[in-house]
C-alpha cells in the first residue's frame, strides 16, 4: 500500500469515526432535528411504491415479465403524475431542511458553540433558499446529462433499426441490453458529478454561497480527496439504497405494509435509514473542514511564497538604487 492510499484510508477512517463521535455526543439533538425532516424521507421512500401500486396498479405483479414492458411501465394517469410531482416537492422540501439543520448543527459542534433544536430550525430562514438554488442547479445538470444520453440512445437505436441490424419490440432483449449499456455509461458520470459536488450544500450553509458558484467551489475543495468522498458515498449510500429498495420491493410484493408487523419493521428500517443519512451529512461537513484546511494551507503557502519573491525584488531594486 503506497503512502497516498494509506493516507486516504486513514482520512476516511478518521472522518467516519468523527461523524459517529459527533452524532453520539449530541445524539438527542440530532435525533430531534432528523426525525421531523430525514425520517419522513426514508419512510415515504419505503412505503410510497406500495401505496402507489395498491391505488393505481392493483393488478401489478413483480413476477410477471409482461408487465415490465415499456407501455405498461409508463401508462400512468394525469392524477398519478400530479401525485408524483407533489411527492417530489415533498422530498425536496424535507431534504433541504434536513441538510440545512444538520449542517448548521455540525458546524456549531465543530466550533464548540452551543446548539439547540430551535436555533437549528431557525437557521433555515437564512439557508433554505440558497440551498434550494443549489439543489435546482445541480439537479438540472443531472437531468440534462441524463436526457442527453437518453436522446443519444434513442438516436442510436433508430439508426440501427433503420439499417436492419436490430428489431425492437416492447420486450426485446436488444432494448434491455441498450438500456443496461446506457446505465453503464451514465451512472459513472453522475457519480463523478456527485463526488465533485459532495461539499456543495455544506458550502451553501457555511459560506453563504448559492447556485452554480457552490458547485464550482465544491469541485475545487474536494480536488485531491475524491477517493475519500467516494468511500464516504459508497459506505453510507450503498447501505441506505439497498435497505430502502429491498424493503420497498418486499412490501410491494408481499403487501405486508398494512399489517402491524409490516408497519413496525418499516418504522425500524426508516429509523436506521435516517440515522445513516444523518451520519452521511455529518461526514460531509467533516470532509469539508478537512478540505478547507488543506486549501487554506496551500493558499497561505502560495501567498507566503509570493510575498517572499516580492520582497526579494524590492530589495534588489533598493540595492540597485543605492549603488
Q: Report the mean per-residue pLDDT as an integer.
A: 78
Helix content: over 70%
Distance between the termini: 57 Å
Shape: globular
The chain-level structural class is mainly alpha
Give the count of structural domains: 1
Order of helices and strands: HHHHHHHHHHH
* Number of separate helices: 11
Uncertain segments: 303-323
Largest sheet: none
Counting DSSP E segments of at least 2 residues, the number of strands comes to 0
Keywords: Membrane, Transmembrane, Transmembrane helix
How would you characterize the overall build of this protein?
With 323 residues, this protein is mainly alpha-helical. The chain has one domain (3-322). 84% of the residues lie in helices and 0% in strands. It has 11 helices and no strands. The chain has helices at residues 3-25, 27-56, 70-73, 78-110, 117-122, 124-162, 173-196, 200-207, 212-222, 226-254, 260-322. The model is unreliable at 303-323 (pLDDT under 50). Keywords: Membrane, Transmembrane, Transmembrane helix. The chain crosses the membrane at residues 30-51, 82-107, 128-155, 175-206, 227-248, 260-282.
Amino acid at each position: 500500500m503506497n503512502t497516498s492510499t494509506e493516507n486516504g484510508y486513514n482520512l476516511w477512517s478518521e472522518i467516519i469515526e468523527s461523524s459517529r463521535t459527533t452524532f453520539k455526543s449530541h445524539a438527542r439533538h440530532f435525533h430531534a432535528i432528523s426525525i421531523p425532516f430525514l425520517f419522513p424521507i426514508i419512510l415515504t421512500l419505503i412505503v410510497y411504491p406500495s401505496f402507489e401500486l395498491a391505488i393505481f396498479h392493483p393488478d401489478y405483479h413483480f413476477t410477471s415479465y409482461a408487465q415490465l414492458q415499456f407501455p405498461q411501465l409508463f401508462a400512468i394517469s394525469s392524477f398519478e403524475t400530479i401525485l408524483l410531482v407533489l411527492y417530489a416537492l415533498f422530498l425536496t422540501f424535507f431534504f433541504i431542511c434536513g441538510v440545512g439543520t444538520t449542517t448548521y448543527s455540525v458546524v456549531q459542534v465543530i466550533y464548540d458553540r452551543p446548539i439547540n433544536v430551535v436555533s437549528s430550525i431557525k437557521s433555515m430562514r437564512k439557508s433554505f433558499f440558497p440551498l434550494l438554488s443549489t439543489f435546482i442547479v445541480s439537479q438540472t445538470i443531472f437531468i440534462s446529462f441524463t436526457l442527453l444520453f437518453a436522446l443519444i440512445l434513442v438516436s442510436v437505436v433508430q439508426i440501427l433499426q433503420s439499417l436492419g441490424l436490430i428489431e425492437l419490440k416492447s420486450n426485446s432483449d436488444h432494448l434491455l441490453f441498450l438500456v443496461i449499456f446506457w446505465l453503464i455509461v451514465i451512472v459513472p458520470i453522475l457519480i463523478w458529478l456527485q463526488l465533485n459536488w459532495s461539499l456543495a450544500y455544506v458550502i451553501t450553509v457555511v459560506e453563504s454561497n448559492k447556485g452554480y458558484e457552490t458547485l464550482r467551489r465544491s469541485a475545487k475543495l474536494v480536488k485531491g480527496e475524491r477517493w475519500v468522498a467516494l468511500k464516504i458515498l459508497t459506505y453510507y449510500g450503498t447501505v441506505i439504497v439497498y435497505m430502502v429498495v429491498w424493503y420497498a420491493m418486499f412490501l410491494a410484493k408481499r403487501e405486508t405494509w398494512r399489517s402491524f408487523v409490516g408497519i413496525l419493521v418499516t418504522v425500524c428500517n426508516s429509523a436506521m435509514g435516517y440515522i445513516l443519512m444523518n451520519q452521511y451529512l455529518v461526514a460531509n461537513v467533516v470532509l469539508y473542514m478537512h478540505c478547507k484546511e488543506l486549501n487554506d494551507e496551500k493558499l497561505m503557502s502560495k501567498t507566503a511564497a509570493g510575498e517572499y519573491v516580492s520582497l526579494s525584488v524590492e530589495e534588489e531594486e533598493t540595492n540597485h538604487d543605492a549603488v
